[in-house]
Amino acid sequence: MSRAGTPLASLLGPWNMLLMSAYCLPRTLLKLLREGKYAVLLSPGRLQDAWFNDFWGGMAGPNIRRDAGIRVVPLLEGRASAGDVVDRQVVPGLAGTVVEVGAGAGLWVDVYPEVACVRASGEGEGEGEARRRNVGGSRAAVDGVITRVYGIEPNRDQHPALRRAIAAAGLEDVYRIVPVGVEDLDDATKWEGRVEKGSVDCIVSILCLCSIPEPEKNVRELYQYLKKGGRWYVYEHVRCEHSWYMRAYQGFLNLFWPHMIGGCQLNRRTEKTLREAGPWGKINVGQPSVEQWHQVIPHVMGVFEK
């Protein structure tokens, strides 16, 4: 969804996603029947979670990871300005305590060792250090140490794949799955852990704010977890603003999209929601310049600094 493409490809691309999702549904139903998970079949919410897990993890997710990675990795390194990737670091990269919103099946877990040194919190220098690679084999990793990652993912169908991704990246001592929603992040009675407000150095949201419930409320809630000077790295798709006819086309697609793509809403005004979450010290975001008038699923990319 992140490639500019031709007008025809951009206009028809979302329908291809819907067709892939529809193709996946019978396989999900058969799998649940074989496994005897009849209660899931009778629960619309749990069925949608299982369906989305099969569609995203097995079909759509890897393509999204490939296409969006050319922007997301530089973004997390601090090399994004006004919506475009730049050659120099304009803000610090990820470091300290990180909250990843919508961790899903772990599509982005392997990025953390790429963009910074990752070390288990509380361990001595050099101990518990995960892999540190040069991004693309040509640039040194961004200075900074990630000591803890909290991955918010209330859809438990995604957890097995997420755990595998954590293990593959060597982050078992650093990355912790949070199996509840944003509203319970600081509630130790809801999960085996607690994140205190005002304790987070960085928040990462990659193509996830489109599907969280009550986005204005939950984005304001997340804002409170950031320290003063903390950074929110965002790469999200947003409402078309180019013209009324593109907004109308996007709105028509959105009649079907949330029901077939895991509750995702195509036309949320996510940048506006983030700007209004609270006072920001700096904002450096924008739509990638390669995305032209025909982009049905445009994006906003950049960093908000508290």
Q: How confident overall, as mean pLDDT?
A: 89
CATH names the topology as Rossmann fold
CATH architecture: 3-Layer(aba) Sandwich
- Unreliable runs: 123-142
The largest β sheet comes out as: 8 strands, mixed
CATH class: Alpha Beta
Helicity range: 25-40%
- CATH 4th-level superfamily: Vaccinia Virus protein VP39
Strand element count = 10
The number of helical elements comes to 9
Secondary-structure element order, as H and E?
HHHEEEHEEHEEHEHHHEE
Spatial separation of the terminal alpha carbons: 29 Å
SS-derived structural category:
alpha/beta
Q: Compute the CA-based radius of gyration.
A: 19 Å
Strand content: 15-25%
How many separate domains make up the residues? 1
Which outline best applies?
globular
Structural features, described:
It is a single chain. The chain is of the alpha/beta class and about 300 residues long. The protein has a single domain (about 5-305), classed as Rossmann fold. It contains nine helices and ten strands. The chain has helices at about 5-35, 40, 45-75, 110-115, 160-170, 215-225, 245-255, 255-260, 270-275, and strands at about 80, 85, 95-100, 115-120, 145-150, 175-180, 200-205, 225-235, 280-285, 300-305. The strands form two sheets. Strands 3, 4, 5, 6, 7, 8, 9 and 10 form an eight-stranded mixed beta sheet that branches. Strands 1-2 form a two-stranded antiparallel sheet. A hairpin with a 2-residue loop joins strand 1 and strand 2. Helix 1 (about 5-35) crosses helix 3. The chain starts with 6 loop residues before the first helix and ends with a strand. Residues about 125-140 have low confidence and may be disordered.
